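Entry 14. Structure prediction run on the chain below.
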Amino acid sequence: MSKPQGFEFWRTKLRSAKFVVAPMVDQSELAWRILSRRYGAELCYTPMLHASVFIRDANYRKESLQTCEEDRPMIVQFCANDPDTFLKAAKLAEDHCDAVDLNIGCPQSIARRGHYGAFLQDEWEVLEKMVKTCHENLKVPITCKIRVFPSVEKTVKYAKMLEAAGCQLLTVHGRTIDQKGVQTGLACWKIIKAVREAVNIPVFANGNIQYLEDVHQCLKETGVQGVMTAEGNLHNPALFHGLSPPIWQMAEEYLALAEKYPCPTSHVRGHLFKIFHHALHIHRDIRELVASVRTIAEFKDVTARLKERCQADVEEYEQNPEEAKSHFKLPHPYWICQPYVRPGPDANSDPEKREVRDELNQKKEELLDSIREYGLSKKQLKKRLKHPSKNFDPNKKLRFDTCLTCPNPKGSRCEFSLCKGCCRQQASKEILDCEAHGMQYKTKAAKLETSAHSQLQNDSKIRVPSSDNEEHLLTSEPHNRKLNRSVSPMSESRNLSENVEKSTSPQEADVASIDL
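Output returned:
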């Protein structure tokens, strides 16, 4: 059966999804996807996964593919720069998703170092081969997520190249590779519209989505099939329902899901920082708690404490709303889920923000001064803040001799001078014991041999009464056959015939041989 393509794929497998949650590194994990689906998301992507790590690390693969029955439709996204590596990773994921996506849009410095994401957008031959290879060999469709070029014509040509290679759905982020951080600016919907009109596959738009009204406006202006959001969703998971719930409500729901579908603590902390963003500018002590706690129970306690603070401000706001609005300087009160607008290059001119930033920097410097030691870099000092007992003196670090067969440290008490992995291989191959590494291949083999020998002695001979009331020993043939599996059926019949002949008269032996 052929896989669906283009618009058929979008209508059937993706159920004509219009409201899409973007792939977000360490942020679009299962718990967050389920929360987003509760509030209107129709399609979700996994976080961006590294194809090479996905292939070699089974634990990474298991954590990355965590899903459940209600988590569909779902697309797995990979970053890669080699066709064979990308295909191997995609083959491992194809049975767990509705499509595989190639990330060609990440503009971060880590993507530059790894040579993937948007830093492949000028290597069209490599991208064409990656997309084509997966299109021809996967059971599910291949999709792509890109950033635009400053030129409309080049962006359209780029999109058509990917379509010709086999891309079945294209997500276009309307920003260039240089639009990030303080230079983020606005996404260009006009270029997205030009791409949509030039290709014959479904197109999703990405960029400038803060409220549900923006979603509808984008659909109207660009003509795309769906709208994807990242930042807007992180600050307000209920965006697609057009709701702006209290921040503690979203946090409580998310923490309950994170408890049901466990994920790394860093993911949970990142989500709470996003949801609580505006509130943490007012309740700065809560920020420190969010940064330091490590369990779901502790995160729940911090959420309850912030909820109590917020509800006290709600009462004050209801008594004097105008004064409270002027104080918060936000579209909504700070305890309401709402978007965060990244500051532009002139953000330093805001005296209030500069004062907050200077205060935080001063506090950090004071902490660093309190632990400052000769020879430690600023980065090491920050690590010392998180891990006070960490040893940075190379002269005091423990040194280990290397394994005889690999560069890893050898076991300090290993009698073969090997690391654990090499010791296991040698011990299993040569049937040896290593007390240091807990290898007991020789001991176990000896126990099995002793047990088998004892069983053989106990069961191989059975005493039966003879006709003259004397006892003689008769070999138990069925047991011998069980022990000696290498004996052929022909040999067993011959042996049985010989025993019968010894224990019967010549006439009886003839009858017995005929029966055999």
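Confidence is low (pLDDT under 50) at residues 466-516.
Filed with the rest of this week's runs.
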